[in-house]
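Sample entry was shown:

___
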Amino acid sequence: MTQTILYARVSTAEQNSTHQKAQAEKAGFQIDRVVTDQGVSGVSVAFADRPEAKRLFDMLRPGDVLVVRWVDRLGRNYDDVTHTIRTLMAMGVIVRTVINNFTFDGSTKDPVQKAVRDSLIAFMAATSQAQAEATKEAQKAGITHAKATEGKYLGRKPSYDRKTFDAVCDALQGTTTVSEIARTHGLSRQAVLRIKDHREQAEAALTKWE
């Protein structure tokens, strides 16, 4: 009997997988069980090296469906993400995403469909890494700006700390609305919009107060 497993990765200890499960169920997925890696970076820790992800390779069987919110839950490194999806497909596992409702099925035989599937995997993996690198560059810019203005007027202290900032940036990459993100993290919509539309400036303002 096949099963549908949701794999959730959350970057900070303050986050949890509840929202990712609710989002999947709202999209029509019937989740049999949830496997979560808590406080694990998608940039520095490969999928196969995560404690709970390792369990998946023992739990999953041919015909099972692995659901992720988006491919960035599998990782934020191009080579790691593409390798992971190909490994799962070789096991006979179907990988599906909640956002965009993409399906990666290794049983596909038609060469054109395989080409389209493989191109989509590559594009999504590349996008995931690009987003991570953009966030990292914004952080570096914030630190540089903070150093340049050290000892000067700091301005108004942000209403969020580093963990909340990172959590909001992560949530903004999904389909969650600004209002929902604001409620979840106890921020105003304006604060979330500043992070969304002016991430480098928000990063710089936060860094000055750390």
